[in-house]
Amino acid sequence: MTRQRALILDILQASRGHLTADEIFVQARQTMPNIARGTVYRNLKLMEQSGEVGRLEMSDGPDLYDRAPTPHGHLLCDGCGMLSDVPVVGLVKELETAIGTEVRSYQLTIHYLCPACRRKNA
Ligand SMILES: [Zn+2]
Ligand SMILES: [Zn+2]
To answer: If you measure from the C-alpha of residue 81 to the centroid of ligand 2, how many angstroms do you get, rounded to a whole number?
Structure first.
């Protein structure tokens, strides 16, 4: 693993998850001032292909990269855009029973209003 790759993983790990490629680049430059934007983007693509990181396609913004040690779903707040992880193992197990075969991968984003936004709306 290259130093750049290790750094990108560290950044994602420290953020507990979800960053755009640009956010990763900005943070990477604090540690490696000479790192190029293209290097970060290229490494992210490679890491996605090898399954080290996940990529979330967002409907209204740049893709988010995800340091996902295990497959999980996401909760997206329609009020403030906050994205958090949610375990969906039980749900996927139920689906596997229903379809009679193994689920190989999934992207699951559940839209909701987070507690802070619910309070604001109340
Ligand atoms: Zn919210
Ligand atoms: Zn996630």
So the answer is: 14
Query: How many A from CA of 118 to the centre of ligand 2?
Result: 22
Q: 2 C-alpha to center of ligand 2: Å?
A: 24
Which of the ligands is closest to the CA of residue 78? 1
Mean pLDDT, each 10-residue run in order, the chain (122 residues) = 91 88 97 96 93 85 84 91 89 95 89 96 83
Contact 117, 79 (CB under 8 A): yes
Q: Is the pTM of this model over 0.85?
A: no
CATH topology of domain 73-121: Dna Ligase; domain 1 (3.30.1490)
Q: What is the CATH architecture of 3-66?
A: Orthogonal Bundle (1.10)
CA 122–ligand 2 middle distance (angstroms): 28
* Residue in the structure block whose two tokens are 């790990």: 13
